[in-house]
């Protein structure tokens, strides 16, 4: 959003004006200002701590507690100082701060209005927990819905995401954390109104802070692992320039197949890593073979066919990769048992390897290389379907076809700078570099 389109600036300006309207009339000084000030300071501190943990935007319990305790304008005011002063890394910083502040002000104001309209304030004052849950739940749903609507709008106007995709999945993804934050905010509000007062309410945040810190540590560790993976892939791309970008695209195609098969998001992510890392073993293959012009000798082919085993050795110690390690080792096996390195057949081949094999072949056929042009997607898919049952798992082929029909194919730029078209499938092994595909034992095995 560095070069912000004019329509996005207009959109942000409209949301900012709406936020200013939400702040009127100002809260009663004697009734609310001390509570607004305390909650605003607490939220600002939490935002700072969250930013330091690289976990910004996670302290919604304070905002929701304000929505349960205060009038809508007062509750909206709680979000303003912390959002305006929160760290922003990307430019334009001022516009981003204004956007974030206005978005939160509108969302908290709407949540407070719904909560008050359903009688939630009286339930909180009376600590009537069963009854207090309904208005609090409605307020949390409103909070998530407003954030979803505004986030989708900024995606459509600033990031130019198509309208049919801008809001897809945003609300569903916001609900689980919203429910947790809402419950914490409700506990804070009830304790605040109890005889124990605000100090007891603040204690609710302690276990949440501990859990956020633990998750932040996990997130940092995972980020470090991903950086290691990316460095390995970049090393492969440098060594074998013909396949630059191939690993990322295979990861993308593997992820599409996994989602089409209905796998959970954890497995989808693992299979993306499997696709990205499938050729990391090429780091152990002499560069002269990877860049050789013309056909390979039988001995040279045998050396290249060792790259799955080299790759498996490299990633064997990365525990979080899980079944991706098996995919690195077995992605050149064939269903009829004629593949390598071990000649596994049928169900002996791990499911993750069967997914990556189809994704690998698909990208190889549909990418423009220095020694041949890309095949059209339709032709590639016909070839994949023709080889299904002998070379590829028919289930994985059908999943890829379904995913492509549903979402299309938008790969990255290939090594020679020509955008590669949609994906396609593999066929018979070539004898030279003129028509290679990833599961063959010919010139190269991308």
Automatic annotation (TrEMBL):
Region (Disordered): 418-446
Entry keywords, A to Z: Hydrolase, Membrane, Transmembrane, Transmembrane helix
UniProt keyword Membrane present: yes
Keyword RNA-binding: no
Residue ranges with Pro residues bias: 420-429
PROSITE patterns per the UniProt record, alphabetical: HD, HD_GYP
TM region positions: 6-26, 33-51, 63-86, 138-158, 170-192, 198-216
Any GO MF annotation of the entry: hydrolase activity
InterPro entries: Cyclic_di-GMP/3'3'-cGAMP_PDE, HD/PDEase_dom, HD_domain, HD_GYP_dom, HDIG_dom
HD-GYP domain location: 221-416
Name this polypeptide is given: Metal-dependent phosphohydrolase
Taxonomic superkingdom: Bacteria
CDD domains the record matches: HDc (cd00077)
Domain HD: 243-365
